[in-house]
Write a structure and sequence with these properties.
Rhopdopsin 7-helix transmembrane proteins, mainly alpha, 9 helices
């Protein structure tokens, strides 16, 4: 790519990263206000669905900052540096925090909405895969490709969240729109996250060229932002 193209690509990546972070923090702030309001009414903090989404937004925000540090400051989007220490440790930590948030949502949804039908197994599985990913030794590019592939495993399990949201929406008329919006939002967000799996990116580079990385990064964050907006609107409907 030319120098101008590099600058444009970097600016796009930075802009969409900041927009995504702002969206996550705004949702977290809104949920925090709702949680504080409920606490004043009941004199206790309810570890319910809203609380789990609040924790998820915090986890996603922290992991996004770490991912941004990994990409913008440490590796400068150079795939040849992704597997190097201490750079890869930052990526691993970001991914671990990310999926801790998902595991908490899965656990609370299982307990609150499904009468603990799954006994927390789905949440434990996501957490187990995340820990394996964090502890897996990385010394070459192929190792990094493998641990990024594990993101797909956790994301597939996390699809349970929109399935449950659809179920709740179908079962409860008053929560139907909220459930459908949250479900759709999580799916869109998940698709955006999968687009940045290194194995997928490498295969697309073979078909197209190295510039596809910029397109995929922007597309991924665009889907993340869209998904979050849908989730936010669904959560607002859910909490009314």
């Amino acid at each position: 790519m030319t120098s101008d193209s590099n600058n444009i690509g970097l600016s796009l990546r930075l802009t969409f990263t900041i927009l995504l972070l702002i969206a996550q923090l705004l949702i977290a702030l809104y949920l925090l206000i709702k949680i504080i309001h409920k606490k004043k009414e009941s004199q206790r903090i309810n570890f319910d669905f809203l609380f789990s989404i609040f924790i998820l937004m915090i986890c996603l925000s922290i992991s996004l900052v770490l991912y941004a540090h990994f990409n913008f400051n440490l590796t400068h989007f150079d795939p040849n540096k992704y597997h190097l220490y201490p750079y890869v440790f930052v990526w691993k930590l970001a991914s671990l925090i990310n999926f801790i948030g998902y595991s908490i949502v899965l656990f609370i949804v299982d307990k609150e909405e499904l009468d603990f039908r799954f006994k927390g197994i789905l949440a434990y599985f996501v957490l187990m895969v995340a820990i394996i990913q964090f502890l897996w030794p990385v010394s070459q590019p192929e190792d990094f490709e493998f641990i990024t592939t594990l993101v797909i495993v956790d994301t597939v399990v996390a699809i349970v969240i929109p399935i449950i949201s659809f179920y709740v929406g179908k079962k409860t008329l008053a929560l139907r729109l909220a459930g459908y919006l949250i479900a759709l939002g999580v799916l869109v967000y998940g698709i955006g996250s999968i687009l940045l799996v290194e194995t997928i990116v490498i295969q697309l580079e073979i078909v197209f060229n190295a510039e596809i990385r910029v397109f995929l990064y922007v597309l991924s964050l665009s889907l993340n932002i869209t998904g979050l907006i849908l989730v936010a609107y669904g959560v607002i409907k859910f909490s009314l």
